[in-house]
Design brief:
Elements lengths: L4 E3 L6 E3 L9 E8 L7 E8 L3 H10 L5 H8 E4 L7 H10 L3 H19 L1
Antiparallel strand pairs: 1-2, 3-4, 4-5
Helix pairs in contact: 2-3, 2-4
Protein name: Phage protein
Pfam families: Phage_TAC_4
InterPro entries: Phage_TAC_4
Length: 118
């Protein structure tokens, strides 16, 4: 079933999903966290949605932020057992060096994909 269709119960009919002009405040996406010597491990993040102008401002502000601050500004939760907070994020970034870039790319890609699809 295509992702832009909604199943309509027992009839088997497909309905087109309706576009809502104001996007949901959050969205979920899996990020492949690079692991040295192995395959990336998928971690689901709950990201904060941004409008085009808010995204432009966020990208400009990243120059003055640490990777941990940027990640806290992009996301609000993850599906790890560890609590989503500054300390845990810093531990992730310290131990999995490519994680900051992986999270950032996924975040931007998802927002841009949403722009293209909508």
């Amino acid at each position: 079933m295509r992702s832009d269709h909604v199943h309509a119960g027992r009839t088997g009919a497909l309905l087109m999903a309706k576009l809502i002009l104001k996007a949901a405040p959050t969205f979920k996406a899996k990020v492949g966290i690079p692991v040295a010597g192995g395959e990336p491990v998928p971690v689901e993040f709950t990201f904060k949605h941004r409008t085009k102008s808010a995204l432009d401002e966020f990208i400009k502000s990243r120059a003055d932020q640490s990777d941990a601050e940027s990640l806290l500004a992009m996301a609000e939760a993850w599906d790890l057992d560890d609590e989503f907070n500054q300390e845990s994020i810093e531990l992730l970034l310290e131990n999995y060096i490519g994680s900051a870039l992986a999270v950032y790319r996924t975040y931007i890609d998802q927002l841009m994909q949403a722009k293209v699809k909508n």
